[in-house]
Amino acid sequence: MQHKLKTLKCAFPYTLPVLTGYLFLGIAFGILLSSKGYHFGWALLMSTFIYAGSMQFVAVNLLISAFNPLNAFLIALVVNARHIFYGISLLKTYKGLGALKPYLIFGLTDETYSLICSARPPEDVDKRYFMFFITLLNHSYWVIASAIGAILGALFTFNTEGIDFVMTALFVVIFIDQWKSQKNHIPALIGVGTSVVCLLIFGPDKFIIPSMLCILISFAALKDRIERKA
Amino acid sequence: MTLTNTQSLILIATIVAGTLITRFLPFIFFPENKKTPRFIIYLGKVLPYASIGLLVVYCLKNISFMQSPFGIPEIIAVLCVIAVHLWKSNTLLSIGSGTIVYIILIQVVF
Question: What b/e sequence results for A179-197 when a residue is b if at least 16 CB atoms lie within 10 Å of its CB, and e otherwise?
């Protein structure tokens, strides 16, 4: 128990950037959801079990559209498809985690993924519990922040137009951080380039799946060049 | 609320299922006791950079350069996020300032 507490204390500072980001995003989500007539219990439910920021913002739109669960399911697959990429890159890191593994996979958000990839715990800390606490702390920030937002949204009236820009800003920031951490920018450029081309060809409602296919094809075609540069 | 409580719950449950599938799929397809193909390992290394790029484009997909305000609020706000982040490298500051600039631009200016 003592040891776990020490690991928790060690993991906490690493999660501070996510704490601030999730407070802002989570509160924004809660306010947006409550502006559509859903009280904070719904925010708690969604943030606990969906736990995927961008998808939850999309879900707010789905909740105010005509009831279409199949469509919602497909959108969830597409919007979250990047998690497949994260999972593939963590196959090795998440080996031998035992009972902790399902929760760590469930809690694999963009931000948790970036911390798991970058954070290096001290030698004397149990890496498995270090990763578990990072995941658990991030998850609790998100749930608490969205409940706060929903309560605020019920107490005050906000003009929420434009608040969804937090998502855009978040991804731009992650993109810059990744860009600075890498010498080889081909993967990032492939991501932006193919998506823009597919957006122009297929339009805003249908471009994600073609983009993902084009990204995969580009990576397959350029494998030798990219691996040589990396 | 346009949907009933039951409809809302069903919708949320399907979104939970879709999200869980995307997170667990790689670990189901490539279990610990089997060797992961080399190509998949390579994809694991490069895909995260491309997928964030895709997400940035996804967020900006509804901009129209043909109609007023011609994407100007988005361009200014994204440039603001980039500038503040390169300057201070503080995630919250970058996100907060960009979002506030955007909200002011679309609620007050345009």
Answer: eeeeeeebbbebbbbbbbe
